[in-house]
Amino acid sequence: MAVRAQNALVALIEPVVTGLGYELVGIEYLPQGKHSLIRIYVDSEQGIQLEDCEKVSRQISAVLDVEDPITGQYVMEVSSPGLDRPLFKPEHYLRFLGHRAKLRLRQPLNGQRKFRGELLSADETHVVLQDVDTGQEFKLTLADIEKANLEPEFD
Q: What is the largest CA-CA distance in the chain?
């Protein structure tokens, strides 16, 4: 159910965000009864400032008030992707090849749900990650990834 609601939210919200001149990076929908959360990540070539988040939030709130896609109460957050940028789409993985990422699978693969490594390759359905500690490569199906974020690297 949460995936269907999340897809419906993307369909409603993406035209609003792109119409304002921003990129919709992705949406996290965490249904938790009265404490549900909708987190919307936006970006632009110039970066995102607080004023950008406020502008996007006002427009999305108006759309959600009219369309009412979520039953019950929820909190909505609009945010920049940040240093630990979430990865939602195949294009995100492709854009950040050579960077380190942390991934968590929906179900364990050979007893392991969490992976950390360098993004070696990606396509529409898979990503190849090389473990930073062991050097082992893992080919993971994108549909099986529950959550993925870049891992900030500081020199």
A: 51
Task: Please check whether residues 66 and 104 belong to one and the same domain.
Answer: no
| Residues 22-36: b if buried by 16+ CB within 10 A, e if exposed | bebbbbbbebeeeeb
Q: Residue 121 in 3-state DSSP?
A: strand
> Which residues form the domain of 12?
2-79
Backbone angles phi, psi at 64, to 5 degrees: -65, -35
Q: Whole-prediction pTM value? A: 0.85
Evaluate whether residue 132 is within a structural domain: yes
CB 142 within 8 A of CB 100: no
pLDDT in tens, 114-153: 999 999 999 999 999 999 899 999 999 999 999 999 998 8
Q: CATH number of the domain that 123 lies in?
A: 2.30.30.180
